[in-house]
Write a structure and sequence with these properties.
The protein has about 70 residues and is mostly beta strands. It has one helix at about 60-70; strands at about 1-5, 10-15, 20-30, 35, 50, 55-60, 70. The chain has one domain. The mean pLDDT is about 90.
Length: about 70
């Protein structure tokens, strides 16, 4: 399991329980620590699934992980 630190805050679309976009966004805060579960399962089609210790998860294209996160 890899650990990542968010380097710069950014916004992403919030998804509902079925994986569809909602009319709201969530902020991913700079300094937050995320882990890559390295599981093959993807709910919304992102290349990388990152999770926080409190259960928040996001799926992103690899290019966004490279842009906004640094592996620890």
């Amino acid at each position: 399991m890899r650990r990542y630190e968010c380097l710069e805050s950014f916004y992403i679309d919030k998804k509902d329980d079925n994986g569809f976009s909602t009319d709201s966004e969530i902020v991913i805060e700079a300094g937050g620590v995320w882990t890559d579960s390295e599981e093959e399962y993807r709910f919304v089609g992102g290349e990388v699934r990152l999770e926080t210790a409190d259960g928040l998860w996001i799926e992103l294209p690899r290019r966004m992980v490279n842009q906004y996160f640094k592996e620890q």
